[in-house]
Amino acid sequence: MWQKAVEKKKEQESKANNQTQSGSGERKDERSQNDEEGKKSERTGNEEKGSANVSYPERRAEDLKRQTIKRLTAIGEKDSFNQNKIERKKRIEELREALAKQSHGAGMGTDKEQIKIGNIGISSPLIDWRKLLKEAVSYNVDWSYKNASVEDGVVTPYLEYIPTPETEILLDTSGSVSETLLRNFLRECKNILQNSRVKVGCFDDEFYGYTEIRNENDIDSMEFQGGGGTNFDVAVNAFTRRVENKIIFTDGEASMPNKKVDAIWIVFGGRKIKPPGGKVITIDDEALEKLLFNYNKTR
Question: 0.85 cut: is pTM over it?
Answer without folding.
Answer: no
